[in-house]
Amino acid sequence: MEEGLIASNVAQAIVTALDWTSSPDARAAAHSFLETIKTGDARVLANTSFLLVKRDWSSEIRLQAFKMLQHLVRLRWDQLNPEERRKFANVAADLMSDIANPCEEWALKSQAAALVAEIVRREGPSLWQELLPSIITLSSAGPIQAELVSMMLRWLPEDVTVHNEDLEGDRRRLLLRGLTQSLPEILPLLYTLLERHYGAAVMEAGRQQMDIAKQHAGTVTAAVHAINAYAEWAPLPDLAKYGIIHGCGFLLTSPDFRLLACEFFKLVSPRKRPVDASSDFESAMRNVLEIIMNVADGFLQKTSYSSSSDESELEFAEYICESLVSVGSTNLQCIVADNTVLSFYLQQMLGFFQHSKLALHHQSLLFWLALMRDLVLKSKIAGIRDISADDLNLGTGQVDNEKRKILSLVNDDICSYILDTSFQRMLKKEKVHPEMKPTTMELWSDDFDSKIGFSQYRSRLLELIRFIATHKPLVAASKVSETITEIIKSVSLELVPTKDLAKIESMHLALENVVSTIFDGSNEYCKYSTEVQLSLHRMFEGLLQQLISLKWTEPILVEVLGHYLDALGPFLRYYPDAVGSVINKLFELLGALPFMVKDPSTSTARRARLQICTSFIRIAKAASESLLPHMKGIASTMTYLQQKGVLMRAEQNILGEAVLVMASSAGVQEQQEVFHWLLEPLRKQWIQPEWQETYLSDPTGLVRLCSETQFMWSIFHTVTFFEKALKRSGLGKGRSLENYSKTSSDVAHPMVSHLTWMLPPLLKLLRAIHSLWSPSVTQALPGEVKAAMIMSDVERTSLLGERNQKSHKGALTFTDGSQFDISKETSEPIETDIRNWMRGIRDSGYSILGLSATLGDSFFRCIDPHSFIIALIENIQHMEFRHIKQLVHSVLVPLVKFCPSDLWVTWLERLLHPLLHHVCQALSFSWSSLLREGITKVPDLHGILAGSDLKVEVMEEKLLRDLTREICSFLLVFAAPDLNPALPSLEQAAQISHMDDSSMRDLNMFACNSMVGFVLNNKSLAVPVLKICVDAFGWTDSDSMGKVTSFCGLVILVAVSTNNVELREFVCRDLFSAVIQGLTLESNAIISADLVNVCREIFVYLSNRDPSPRQILLSLPSITLHDLLAFEEALLKTGSPKEQKQHMRSLLIMATGNKLKALAAQKSVNGITNFTMRPRNLGTVPESSSLDEGDAIGLAAII
Q1: Which of 778, 973, 1091, 1152 counts the most CB atoms within 10 A of its CB?
Q2: What distance in Å separates the CA atoms of residue 1092 and residue 1099, rounded to the nearest whole number?
Q3: Residue 644: exposed, middle, or buried by beta-carbon count in 10 A (0-12, 13-18, 19+)?
Q4: How many whole angstroms separate alpha carbon 996 and alpha carbon 1061?
């Protein structure tokens, strides 16, 4: 009677909790009552739940009762004694038998099966063996009973296939062992159910008994899903032995079940061969492959490259192709011994690669890419150059026979077909002229459902082309030359030649990759036989002569022709005789294009001219020394064109950069002469005091400069060329003067003599630009200049991450990654023009200063630090966050890295103090505002009328995090080993820490040979730096936190190594407390181990010299003095940092009452998804509620 009353009360509580029309108080009371039942007596919970799963109650109540039973089994099973558990199991098994009724809802059947499976997993193999006879008997009772048994068998291995932190170690191994031992009973049972009910479903459907046929079909579906639960881990020979592979292979012929069967093959095909596997594994995998190949052959013969298949057929083919790719990627060795099967398999993969449907082609592309990457790279390492199949038999002992055999089957024909298809598919549907689109082939389009974009897809195609060119250079050279020749002929016959523009443009990428692979500069080309070299020479020389003979004048075509010519640059390295004709052709193309400045109709010509100039750079880099004999001739032609006035400044810059690249291959003397020739004309204009006084003496002068467009852009091009000269002088990749001196003995760096005249006007220009953000100046500025200072739409979109930013349609990307925007000198709104100019000056100016700093002494001892610091720091308090980030990254980082230590006070102290002081205050204010008010206050978005407050908040937070990370990275630069050679190791510091303060070194002894020591010894720097460190532990940005933690490690090291009481007190009190506070933030979970280690280092090495760490720990809410003493005793017993860190972690968790979110155990919630492909009726259970935990069904639905 009492149990019935409790059951009624629980039922009423469930109804109330699920009824959204109930009052909040009523629902809260219902939840509280249910929680009391769940956490109360386990026997009451069991009896009540078993009463509520009976048919007397509604579906909603029964469903929740099943979940309560599962909750008991998973979390409270040990509270029942063995007899009670056995009785519970028998009742659950009987319940599964009782619920096998056509009238029962599928969700309830699923819960009943899941409950029995959960009990078996908890009790282990003994219970399974006891239940097995009744399970087999139940499966024979009818299709509904068989479906329930299949469901239960599907749930059994759930904890093997899905990670569950509640089931680790011995229990998991015991479950896996028990299931493996039971496979001889489980797999035959599943095969029997599959065979029996598939046949019954077909027979009943033939009799038009559709209701009964659906029941049998449901059993087949459940059986296949159960099989798939074992396919991931059960030994492959067992799956073959008990007929599972055969049965699922048969289902591939059934339109109703073939997609389900595909899932099985998708799971087994990538199974890797165990180390101790017998030949049975290879036999089973070969069986898998043969089944899939037979199905694939039927599809390929039926479609034969057409697109006439229906959608269901294509979906099926995608699954089959995916399985073929998996087998080929992991188990190709299983068929390598059979030449016929292996050849047939490669032909099938080629058929999918050539298929008109993009999805099938894309699947096959992944196979060919993986195969060729593996084969070609390994053959190169082993020294094989596979020019023909016969070559494979010569001197290939280092490569195993399997690889050589596969490589020999990738013959000329296969490579030729792959190249043909790859060339055709490098086109994007949206770019192709409607009249030129292929009739059958499905090209890549924006609508294609893929995890990658077109650029990544095309990159994969180009990578495959490179592998083919490595494997079969003659085939690749011949095919790319023939294809380009055909395109050239078709263009000459077209009335509108630009119709085929997409194909013309795409083929230059293919040519570039083939040529760069064959003539890759690593002496691979020299390993070819003389006959092969002559053949390659003839083919590319013939193609080059065709390109040179073209008389294209259309700017778009001229631009493409420039691409083709520079793609042949690596070829010119080995055949320099052709260099002269290429150079002449480029200058001819440049002269044939119209020279106009502001006419918008000539924008394509303008772009083409820039592209032709850029081709000189690309050829100079690729052909290397081959261009040296022509360098003077190129310089003379440049001078001639300048004198005629038909060479724009941007074009002069690019051609000048090309000459710099050529000079880098010459001697030091020649390089210095080239620098002088290029920079001397600029020097004469740049050092003139008139323009500096007119435009840079005050902000109004800079405003006047912005209104004089031609002179404004002339300054821009001068500054950008200075940057290019510095990069091309050998400083672009971090080379310092010391690196340069190693190769040039006593000869000075070619740019050293130019810094003294180059930098002073540049600093004035940057100072003038910085001053515009000063409030007193900004108020007086004209509207167009104010508008130019506001962030552009492109920058805001980039901050929002709404789409990947592409280069402006008028932007040329050079080989070094830089861009030149041709729109900067065309008709643009004046504020856009000014914004682009200021951004360009800032970008290049900062880059010049940073590159100059890498020259070390030559820079720091010849430049006036006062003017340098004033230019950068004078208006630092008015700078926007994005500009400070750029300044730190581009200028201050190299300054700190390369500044001589004897100049740290002169340069760094005066430079860093105002910066760090301002940044410390700005970050503290913005983060405080964000964390307390949810509003990030940054200066960058002032003046922007955003359409969405949410977007503004996102942008502001992104700007704040970007600057925070940059500043924290800057602190990490201070801690670089190269800048701190005087600091001892932590082991040495540990020995020092036991001495008296009088025995240790003073902090100022580290200030001259340790950057961290210098910063900490200087209070004007130490105060803001240490405040940033302490504050950062409260900021929710784990990326920044990781950098700060590394810097703090050196701060601790200095505190341990010196006798500075003030620093030691800061570390022991402020830093120790801040780190513990940082562990309360869940965002710091990823670096929690580092934070715990900081606490360990402070306590282990400093607690004997300062009481603060002990006092702070004792102030935590859940610790006693006894706990602390036990912790200290544990530390004394071990010298292992790893063990000490574990002790510290345990202490912190205990002392805070497990309130440190960064250390809290993060348990994953594992849901079991409904595996059926048929829609199921879940009754009237709401879609979500706190009671049913997201409406999960199965073992993971724990309430």
Answers
A1: 1091
A2: 11
A3: exposed
A4: 12
Query: What are the residues whose beta carbons fall under 8 Å from the beta carbon of 82, sequence distance 6 or more?
Result: none
Under DSSP, is residue 983 helix (H, G, I), strand (E, B) or coil? coil
Q: Which two tokens stand for residue 521?
A: 């500069």
Amino acid at position 106, single letter? W
For residues 567 and 622, give the distance between their C-alpha atoms in angstroms, rounded to a whole number. Answer: 9
CB 119 within 8 A of CB 73: yes
Closest CA to 1144 of 1198, 1086, 1099: 1099
Tokens 């390929």, located at residue:
300
pLDDT tens digits, 28-69: 999 999 989 988 889 999 999 999 998 889 999 999 999 999
Residue 86 makes CB contacts below 8 A (sequence gap 6+) with: 127
Distance CA 999, CA 1193 (A): 69
Q: How far apart are CA 79 and CA 10, in angstroms?
A: 21
Q: What CA–CA distance (Å, rounded) separates 1154 from 1080?
A: 10
Q: Which two tokens stand for residue 1149?
A: 């968790």
pLDDT in tens, 241-292: 999 999 999 999 999 999 999 999 999 999 888 887 778 898 999 999 999 9
The three-class DSSP label of residue 1135 is coil
Please, are residues 91 and 50 in contact by the beta-carbon 8 Å criterion?
Answer: yes
- Residue 354: CB partners within 8 Å, gap ≥ 6? 305, 361, 417, 421
Please say if the pLDDT value at position 305 is more than 80: no
Strand-pairing partners, residue 820, are: 812
Answer yes or no: are the C-beta atoms of 324 and 349 closer than 8 Å.
yes
pLDDT value of residue 278? 77
Interatomic CA distance for residues 300 and 285, integer angstroms: 22
- Tokens coding 748: 């000075």
Q: Of 71, 121, 132, 62, which Cα lies nearest the Cα of 95?
A: 62
CA-atom Rg of the chain in angstroms: 37
Give which of 292, 273, 129, 161 is closest to 225, Cα–Cα: 161
Count Cβ neighbours within 10 Å for each residue of 1033-1060 and write b for 16 or more, e otherwise. Answer: bbbebbebbbbbbbbbbbbbbbbbbbbb
Report the length, in residues, of the chain.
1199
Question: What is the rounded distance in angstroms from the CA atom of residue 398 to the CA atom of residue 382?
Answer: 6
Residue 1099: closest CA among 1130, 1120, 1122, 1078 = 1130
Judge whether 818 and 693 are in contact, CB under 8 Å. no
Listed as own residue / partner, the contacts of 903-909 with beta carbons closer than 8 Å and 24 or more positions apart are 903/860, 903/861, 904/1008, 904/1011, 904/1014, 906/865, 907/860, 907/865, 907/869, 908/1014, 909/1018, 909/1020, 909/1021
Using the 8-state DSSP alphabet, how is residue 1058 labeled? B
Through-space distance between the first and last CA atoms of the chain, rounded to whole angstroms:
26
Predicted confidence at residue 739, as pLDDT, reads: 46
Largest CA distance in the chain: 110
User: 189 near 153, Cβ under 8 Å?
Assistant: yes
